[in-house]
Amino acid sequence: MKRRRWWADQGLRGMLVVCGVAFLIHLIPLFLPRNMPEQELSIARATPLSEQRVRLLLPLREHPKATAAELREAAELLLDGAPAEAHELALAAERREPEAMETQLLLARVCEVERMERCVRTALERANQLAPTDARPDVFRAELRERGGDTVGASEAMKAAFGKAPGEPLIGLRYARLLSAAQRPSEAFAVLTTLRGKVPLARLLVEQALVLRAAGQGEEAVAVLRKATLEDPRLSLAHFELGLALFRLGDVDGAQEALRQADRLDLGSPRALAALCAMQLEARRIDDARLTRMDLERRFSGRMELIRQSCSVP
Questions:
Q1: Number of domains comprising the chain
Q2: Most CB atoms closer than 10 Å: which of 50, 66, 75, 123?
Q3: Is residue 110, in this structure, part of any structural domain at all?
């Protein structure tokens, strides 16, 4: 019995020694000098606090081995919580690689966060000079103007982007929506026509319906959306927009059915249920709205602010 206990004790000690050695091996990298920017970036990616990221990443602006791409990534990691430090890193990237258009786009984004309009304009102008055929500076300019409420200016900027990349579906779709918002439906339809064969037909029909709805042609929009749901019954967006269009025409029951179908086709998004609840409240269907809110709370408990805003049941 004593001999067996002795062997057991020896085995336990051996396991503890092995575990201790393994633990020490994993600790070694933390005590080794870090001399590569990639190491700092790796740690920063796993660090949620911007203050800690700043301590890790800001020294990279003077690091002789830091590439422009690494400095841009470091700036991206600091953009939300520390835009001033992100600006310094972006400028360091520009010094390392003055001809990189990606750095100018990053500078434009950083300056926009810092509300430095002149800096944004300068960066976008420089980006256009460095890559005159690249559509991205114009797309960013369109986004800025749209956020500022300048729909006409946004559509003009997107026109320039579309001229540089006429075969890019996402740019074409955004351009068409901006033209529609600027009360230019015929031009929006012309742009959508150029996207035939590049965008799935059902999605193209949805976009056409949105132009019709914005132009006050609600019944025509519903007809086109029904075609979209027949073309692709699995396209949640088509059912969602159909629900909104039917509600505007006063067909609450049809709108509810369409939004429920949109929800079934995209169970990971609360958008259809949120719209459904808002619609039910507006139509004074309080009991239905309570049931919808229960669905929202059960499936999207982490989105309570959205639920409160869209589904505030009395």
A1: 1
A2: 75
A3: yes
Residue whose pair of structure tokens reads 């103007």 in the numeric block:
145
40 conformational bin, left if phi > 0, alpha if psi -120 to 50, beta if neither: alpha
Residues of the chain with pLDDT under 50: 2, 6-8, 21, 23-33
Extract the tokens encoding 240: 């969602």
| Residue 161 in tokens | 């982007």
| Amino acid residing at 128 | N
pTM score, whole prediction: 0.77
Domain that holds residue 56: 52-132
The string of pLDDT tens digits covering residues 171-200 is 999 999 999 999 999 999 999 999 999 999
Q: Is residue 117 part of a domain?
A: yes
Asked if residue 83 belongs to a domain, the reply is yes
Residue among 40, 29, 28, 98 at smallest CA distance from 66 = 40
Residue with tokens 């808002």: 278
Element (H, E) at 105: helix 101-113
Domain CATH number, residue 125: 1.25.40
